[in-house]
Specification:
4 copies of one chain form a homotetramer. The first copy, chain A, has about 500 residues and is an alpha+beta fold. Chain A folds into 2 domains: about 250 residues, Aminohydrolase, N-terminal nucleophile (Ntn) domain (Glutamine Phosphoribosylpyrophosphate, subunit 1, domain 1, 4-Layer Sandwich); about 160 residues, Rossmann fold (3-Layer(aba) Sandwich). Chain A has 16 helices and 22 strands. In chain A, the strands form 5 sheets. Chain A has a 7-stranded antiparallel β-sheet with strand order 3-2-4-1-10-9-11. In chain A, strands 5-6-7-8-12-13 form a 6-stranded antiparallel β-sheet. In chain A, strands 17-16-20-21-22 form a 5-stranded parallel β-sheet, with helices on both faces. In chain A, α5 packs across α6 and α9 runs antiparallel to α13. The first copy, chain A, is globular, with a radius of gyration of 23 Å.
């Protein structure tokens, strides 16, 4: 998962893009980057780290110009090194920089094509480099010095045809303008908005609407599936549906966990969707366990707060903040001759004994992935004196890997993979295990926007909307994730973003 | 406000102290430091920044040894530069390092004495350097190569006589052991605990019990007012009351805002104290405003969560997390030729419209200091569609400066200074303003430990428990705070912790 | 002036390229960079600073592979920022990195062409980026996945036709091999050599033969004017004359000052050339001033040492090292409210009084550019007690700017511009001024290789061998140098190589 | 070996001390530090590295004040880590910082005393910390708030009695002034001088007179053996002989190799002393080998240049700069799985074949220590075509370790230890080996100042002037050097000056 932002302003945009990236920081804390354009020259700063650590005054001073794009990154599947920060760059044609959120599922084939047909060298494993070069190639084929918006939309249409998977991308085409597009299934989110200023109208695109809110931009709309928005250098907004048979099937996990609650995604309030998930979960409990003996509902901070408060309300049970989250987490250092010690959940969460002692507690989490944290939390609840510990997940069982840009473990590491809900409860040690069902989750979201027919539900159902994911793909993915995990351990001390970065700017 | 920690372990303590500091990070995000002792040699690492930024693997490797102390700092009154990280050091006698939390109110006089009588040079404005040198001088007067615990306690007794104000301090006396003491009023908190390991018993002292919890230590007790604990190098715990007429009058603001809710301070659960504050506040509302028309209670994250949930419960009104907090806040850069722009609250908080639209909302904060943030938040609530916006503070009006180590503005900047509650409400734009009263707050805390007769309530009452604060002192303080504010603006880019640090290690 | 190196080895080349760059460090102390290729992936590290400061262990570990190129840079005319370190990169076609020494005199026109015809974006003012993109474009026109050596040489031939000026360049063409070529006049030097190892023959190219010596490579030959050498990935050496009417007219200033004395350039030993310059100078003195009263010859360290020792020998006068050079020069800092103070020559040189007191001294320098240093040195000699101070330059008067890659001031700043030799002597305060004449200098060099018909003598004669330099060009150059000087003062603290670098790697 | 400097000025001294340190950089390239005092506050910056790398603008801006001291360091015997940069600091009494050049030979005993009697903790292995604490203790015993110059000189007298070995030290006593003293044998050099300015007279002390020259100070005198100079805060110079039976026995190696030729040490011009060494060496050759067949004299740069030019002159043989020195030496990196490769002399020196081919060459070096470099150089000479290679050392055989602050290897690693001159010649592969004899060397120096009765000649004779060096001491030293060599290998990557530094500032 990543966050993207782009602004075509009427005054310097460096601070605005920086601010937008901090608002989107929850979408990726691994790396951050900004490119601006000023007088035909591009200025870039990117590095591993949080936004506040990557940009210093000296960098901001160089990021001149009224147009720019930015990116925060969470490592996605297949990225073997942690040094491939975005935006990325190619100088031919025009000079193009691009940042994207998502994952191309046919990047191996595209790499092959880029090499053999287009003779474009790729210097990273990043599928963003693939996407950038496919776009560059399609623009180059237009064979013009100055492209019209239609030329550009036409090229985006060809990108849509060639690139499978999930991608919401923002690109600066030097001498032309800022382009933003969303894949034909609209799996990853993107919105655009505007702000009127003394000097004229400014436009902004971003992964989530909160970034627009924070900067005082007014949301115009989501960028549709297979749709593109282009703001030319003169400040004019152009937009076009670039893929014929596109159908919006957005990733439902944005609502479950990824997005900020105060965002609107595809016209659905994430906050309301989560309230409804709590509601549906309450209904299910009351339906299936009418004589429950729950004394108190305790959310596991932070994401589940919204659904838990509604769940408690519907159950007519008290909700209490029984777990305190430590917001400052440090590293575990490997000393010479020592083994890596596992950071216990205890340093991230602490239980308020008062709220557990002699009570039947219902712990609520937004979802369960590996299950190891859930297990430790249940143990903490028991140590704090709980009589019974019930566990509710505001999402259905996560049983399959994600291939659309969310960094999830391989199937074999998912606690619900190949297990019934009850079995999961046993593994994590709950006295009772309650999952929201798929229908409930889908309804909870769709109520916000009934026009959305389908969602990407692949992590729950194993059905991949792009139709190109077979067991070979998933096996390779599992292999990659294992290899990259191993490699990252080996190279930790050796890596140097400043170095690798250079050559990634193609 | 600062956080301190010390461990006498049976195996290397670097990671443990680091972990404890991250747990105490809420007490100070400005600077961090660790000293360990190994084979008669001291190892120090400190710098400005968060714990996770200050310590890298190469530092941790050098921090060898089974005994050490640590510190996180929030700049306190009178500290003119931001570069005086702790622990501090003197080499004579024995080699002593010290870190402390609090503020000496007679440091000017002590500096004078140290200079003219003890001929000890102070190279910073930090009162920690004063405290360290007073301790060093008192130990030196013993004129012995090897001090007994009683010698040390005797010296601490003299420190108590000489040093006015608030201080909870931890010190490493080379060749002797680890010392921790709390001023005769016990204003700032300190606890100690132990952990049994294969290699023997380990002892730990810390500002708050959460640090002990996180590391698996068992709380033995608070360190009493005028009390000292000394763990000698052989691992034996000694303790002694070193001041005769001490009376515990702890700072009540720890319960209001400073401490983590999951801490026990002077045998009072901070969480429970806050629940009770919410309760008392509800009682006051029901008493004074029985026909209130509050539709929903909305806490301003994060501290007020605990009291707000209880307040809502007692009022029998829904509580909703209507504000979303952005956890990643960036800087505002000053570009050449630009003025500093104020970071709006809007980038820190975002309102969920659903919870405000057409409702009478009661916003709850833990306390109100300057009032400027409250004002902006009320405005946000109105923009989100609230009909009426009521504002409750879970603490009484803050009207006087703090001189015991909490970084609060001068009296003139406190919104409640010289204003009635109603007037404050008008200033911040609330339709109604409700403050918890002093009695309610005191009861809420004392209920947890009725043996506490008095609290330091100075920010609410203007009565300073140490008896040495007159208007001259407060005037000078106000001046200092203004000067230091100005100076820090001037020197921001020039400062260099690594540099100044060197000479502070005396 | 810059230094380039390239190696196609049979084992990792990072250390070898690093070592070669330190040997070539005298050609540029401003920035350094290395690219290696390993398994189709390129690895780059470059930054401002000396070789020993730019490369740390963590960088070297990433620079894997048996083939690579390197660069040390001295800022050349027209480079307005100091951050454009080399090698530079384009990803299309193939992935090409290039480093070069020299200066393109028609880069403005080429930029125009690259933009309008080739649609290649240039993101710096560096003519290296121009050269790289011209080469990339010419290779792209071949429209093949795998180029033959002849394809490559053909493209180089087209580069020769398009690019005017001086350039010795080394390039890595990914999937193909290492290419090195020298402009049709052979103005800047380049050599190639080989080394036999257990694993096969390794090839190396470099600006000067000393780099080959230091690494144990055997010099094969200079790369001729308009000639190219290509070592394909399989380790085979190919070479070809790629420009028909090329004529070697090497820059004679390499022999005067730039090159290391222990280098062979175009089959001429620089050391011997300098000895002969001393000889010719002695002949001139004996011829024109037979009754000279010189007591001692004192070289101004370091370059003039070689000619001075021979000059003294021929004059039959003692030579003494009367000036001691301080090898560690620091900066002059600008403190707030202070003016920049000029670093006096006195901190770079110190006179041994003994060798000056009551003597007629002949100071010898390799050449005179601005004359300000000479003036101060003469003053120092007088203060050290010299009776008479004569000044000899082992090169003729420097009267015109350099446009072929040597960083020399504009004409107006050259002390000999528009002045007779005698007038120069008066300006710098010498009792007598002696310059080697042009014929003498040319003979001194040509004696080593009589087949060289002409040299680039432009700084002495104002005649530019490439035929494209008119007064417009020189005026623009003067303007640029003034602007860039001003700008660099303004931006000194703001610049950040790591940042700009990124986008320069096209 | 180290360099020290101190200035009591009438305007800010930061730039002046910085400049002086660059002039003294040849005395130590390992670490650098400056302390200034301003308004009773001390400001320190120190770190490992060259002067130009240690001090940035932000540091210089903090180094305010008109008085300060500085230090450049070469690691001396017994210093096990490379992180103990100077000046060092103690806060009691007064606040004292000190930097020194030399080595205490009884530091183990002094450490014991400081610990058991004075209760002063030492946190490093540095004997500078010992010296500082002895001085601090002696000043403390005066038991006064304000010391008179005589009090201070009296304390220095006691330091002289307690501290054996070689030391030239500079110290800032806060609130008092700047103190400089030289051990009772005057083994290491120190000078003082003055400069008249508009604002009054400024004083400066330094290791060598070149530092005074470079800053425009006029040399007053050497600081005598057992002598001290104190410039009080009011700018008055005081001086006193503080040790009764002191006798100047300066280290003759300063003249052989350490000092800059343009320095005056104890009234002897180093340059002239070296000229005379060349003369004496010529006399010895003519005496012992009248029919020599030397064709050319070739100095090994840089130190031997001065003696070689005179040697050649007296032999009536040509001198030629046949070796070119590479002034930019890089590191050899250890790649994973690789062994450390030895950097060959070939990367530091290159032979000009012309000067060797078919000639009998006399190579001249200032001295021979391990002999390994000499051996490689002789081999290079042969490869360059020399018929015969003779080798001359302008100093006698170095056979014993140095205990007075010069970083020399243990006896067992000295090629001349236990070998005759002829045997040394065989080991290094010379066709003939010529050493200057001890008498010649002593005469060469003493001629400059006949009043110097004795020199420290210990590395040549094994007789240690301080009378306290026995075989136990030397054995321990050898052990230490081996251990420290080993340790430094282990910890290379781990060390962090910024960290250890802190605690060394006592």
């Amino acid at each position: 998962m990543c966050g993207i932002v782009g602004i075509v302003g009427k005054s310097p945009v460096n601070q605005s893009i920086y601010d937008a990236l901090t608002v989107l920081q929850h979408r990726g804390q691994d790396a951050a980057g900004i490119v601006t354009t000023d007088n035909g020259r591009l200025y870039l700063r990117k590095d591993n780290g949080l936004v506040r650590d990557v940009f210093h005054t000296r960098h901001m001073r160089r990021l001149t110009g009224n147009t720019g794009i930015g990116h925060v990154r969470y490592p996605t599947a297949g990225s073997s090194t942690s040094a491939e920060a975005q935006p990325l760059y190619v100088n031919s044609p025009y000079g193009i920089t691009l940042a994207h959120n998502g994952n191309l599922t046919n990047s191996d084939q595209l790499k092959e094509e880029l090499f053999s047909t287009d003779r474009r060298h790729l210097n990273t494993n990043s599928d963003s480099e693939v996407l950038l070069n496919v776009l560059a190639h399609e623009l180059q084929l237009k064979d013009k010095n100055q492209l019209s918006p239609d030329d550009i939309f036409d090229a985006v249409g060809n990108v849509f045809k060639r690139c499978k998977g999930a991608y919401a991308a923002v690109a600066l085409i030097n001498g032309h303008g800022l382009l933003c597009f969303r894949d034909p299934h609209g799996i990853r989110p993107a919105v655009y908005g505007k702000r009127e200023t003394e000097n004229g109208i400014e436009y902004m695109v971003a992964s989530e609407s909160v970034a627009l809110d924070a900067l005082g931009y007014e949301l115009i709309d989501d960028i549709g599936a297979g749709h593109a928005v282009f703001i030319s250098d003169d400040g004019t907004l152009h937009e076009k549906q670039c893929f014929e048979n596109s159908e919006l099937t957005p990733c439902i996990f944005e609502h479950v966990y990824l997005a900020r609650p105060d965002s609107m995604i595809d016209n659905v309030s994430v906050y309301k969707a989560r309230l409804r998930m709590g509601e549906k979960l309450a209904e299910k409990i009351l339906r299936e366990w009418p004589d429950h003996d729950i004394d108190v509902v305790i959310p596991i901070p932070d994401t589940s707060l919204t659904s838990a408060v509604q769940l408690a309300h519907e159950l007519n049970v008290k909700m209490r903040h029984g777990f305190i989250k430590n917001r400052y987490i440090g590293r575990t250092f490997i000393m010479p001759g020592q083994q890596m010690r596992k950071k216990s959940v205890r340093q991230k969460l602490n239980a308020i004994e008062l709220e557990f002692r002699d009570k039947n507690v219902l712990l609520v989490d937004d979802s369960i992935v590996r299950g190891t944290t859930s297990e430790q939390i249940i143990e903490m609840a028991r140590e704090a004196g709980a009589k019974k510990v019930y566990f509710a997940s505001a999402a259905p069982p996560v049983r399959y890997p994600n291939v659309y840009g969310i960094d999830m473990p391989a199937a074999s590491e998912l606690v619900a993979h190949g297990r019934t809900e009850e079995e999961v409860g046993q593994v994590i040690g709950a006295d009772k295990m309650i999952y929201l069902d798929i229908e409930g989750m889908v309804e909870a979201v769709r109520e916000g926007n009934p026009s959305i027919k389908h969602f990407d539900l692949s992590v729950f159902t194993g059905e991949y909307i792009t139709g190109d994911i077979d067991s070979n793909y998933l096996d390779r993915l599992q292999q990659l994730r294992n290899d990259s995990a191993k490699k990252s351990k080996d190279t930790e001390e050796v890596e140097d973003a400043a170095m690798v970065m250079d050559l990634h700017n193609q």
